[in-house]
Structures are given as structure tokens and as C-alpha cells.
Amino acid sequence: MTTLKGKLVFLRALENEDLQFLYDIENDQQVWELSNTMTPYSKYILQNYINNSHKDIFEVKQLRLVISDYHDNCIGLIDLFDFDAKNKRAGVGIIIKDVKDRKKGFAKEALNLLINYSFKTLQLHQLYCNISESNLNSIRLFENLNFERIGLQKDWNFNGKSFTNVYSYQLISKA
Q1: Nearest residue to 78 (alpha-carbon basis) of 34, 16, 136, 28
Q2: Interval 116-171: pLDDT, tens
Q3: Cβ pair 93, 34 in contact under 8 A
Q4: How many Å apart are CA 43 and CA 22, to the nearest integer?
Q5: Which residues have C-beta within 8 Å of that of residue 169, sequence separation ≥ 6?
Q6: Rounded to the nearest 5°, which phi and psi values hold at 168?
Q7: How far is CA 133 from CA 12, 98, 153, 168, in A?
Q8: pTM of whole model > 0.90?
Q9: How far apart (Å, rounded) are the C-alpha atoms in residues 65 and 54?
Q10: In what order do the strands lie in the sheet with 163-172?
């Protein structure tokens, strides 16, 4: 599918070989605040998740894709969640696993591919995301792809020490 291929990366479905990669991301406590996770995931649970990842987004209301380079390296994950077919919207989340792979254009291209797929193939009207006000790299990423800041949720997330504010962003299809 050409909509999921860019110059630097392509987006693909989860494979059994991605278990360790998924395990490492899901159990990295430094990113738990981003995903509202509070407990670790076992390989057994994640293997079941991979085994069921073939299910249709209309059924499970989410889609997780691997961001891969053309050397078959897993760079990160990009998700559609809270998929709402009736109202034609979904949330979007993205993570680039290793710091060495950040600020190289991978996330921007992956997000752009997902936006195009969401609007053209899934026929969504809008995408949204919530970003901690301290996550300046994500704010720049989403704003560079024309997501509009539409609000501030005060004291929205608790990071274990204090509450943090979260910005809400939205991108509405021009079609």
C-alpha cells in the first residue's frame, strides 16, 4: 500500500518478531506518563496483543503500526486509538524508541503517512492528540503538520510527583 510508504520510513503491521521491541517500549517507565500506563506488560500479554492485531480497526477501535526504516529496523510505533467511525475521528499517538533516531525526520514522515491514510483510506474527518506541555518535541512535530492547539487541560496527568498540564490538538481534514 503506497499510502504507508515514505522516503525514510514505512508503516507496517505488527509481526511476531516485534515482540521484544514492543516489550521494551511498553515496559519503559520513562514513557508510561505518555501512555497512561501504570503497570508492566508480560511477553505473554503482548504476544496475545500481536496475535490479535490483525483485527479490523472498525472492530477493535485502534490500529498500531510499526515505524520501520528500509533496513528492517524498528524505529517506533504509531497508533490510532479511540477510533470513532460514526463521528469520523480518532486519537493519534507516536513514539520513536531510541533517542538516536529522534530529530531525523522519521516521526514527521510517519505521522504524515498516518494522516494521509486516516483521511484518504479510512475517510476520517479529524485526528486529535493530547501532549504534555513540557513535551516540546511533540508539540513542534504536531504543529509542523498543521495540528491546531485547541485547549489546555490543567493538572491533567499525574507523573508520580506532581500534576502536569496537557495541550489538546486537532487536525481537521480539508477534503
Answers
A1: 34
A2: 999 999 999 999 999 999 999 999 999 999 999 999 999 998 888 899 999 999 99
A3: yes
A4: 9
A5: 128, 129, 130, 131, 142, 143, 147, 148, 149, 150
A6: -100, 135
A7: 30, 21, 10, 10
A8: yes
A9: 11
A10: 9-12, 63-69, 74-84, 89-96, 126-132, 163-172, 148-158
